[in-house]
Amino acid sequence: MKTETLQLLLPYGLGTVNAYLLEHRGAFLLVDTGCSSAERQLRVYLESHGCNKSNLKCVLITHGDFDHTGNAAILQREWQVPIAMHRDDVEMASKGDMFFNRKRMWCVGWLSRWMFDFNKSRFFMPNFIITLDGTSEENRILPPEFSEKIKLINIPGHSKGSIALFTTDDEQLFCGDLLENVKKPKLSDIMDDLPAARQSLDCLRKLKPRIVYPGHGSPFELNQVQE
């Protein structure tokens, strides 16, 4: 499976956020979409890698933060691409409430919506709601080109509905914002539930991934995380 990192700009010089484009036998799966201000940059990236509305099979959202969901509604509406995300983060996207199911910080919630321009045109309801509770299987959510090669794991901590993707053939791990590597590999600075995050990290260690792709920063080996 081929992986391309799409490093998308955040507004106001706040750095970058990663989206990932996975390709297998001419079919594509997009992991996260950046924030709305990076829409043009995302479109250029997709086009440059040969990804279009006919071969982009699914967008998988690792968690509901606006810098990861900002262009999902556009792809869903214009390209008719199905969106999948965990049920515990759905109302972040459908109601534009980044602090749904999280500890409340009202001023930060309002400010983040303004900064990331997550207005009503960016709200969306995912086509597939991931539960990972035994009643829903990954191979019913993921397109057939990827269903036997990707395992989905709930990794609460940064948010309750955070998920990771693990490619079983080449042992790549995509962890959203549970981990970051802006200065060094570590648990992300922003956590809703730190004990849950540490448990999620322990769960990921058992997978023994070859390489980890975070939501922010460069890829790294999981044994570099000292927690």
Automatic annotation (TrEMBL):
Q: Which residues form the Metallo-beta-lactamase domain?
A: 16-216
Q: Which domain of life is it from?
A: Eukaryota
InterPro entries recorded for this chain?
Answer: Metallo-B-lactamas, NDM-1-like, RibonucZ/Hydroxyglut_hydro
Q: Signal peptide position in this chain?
A: none
Pfam families (UniProt xref):
Lactamase_B
Q: State what protein this is by name.
A: Metallo-beta-lactamase domain-containing protein
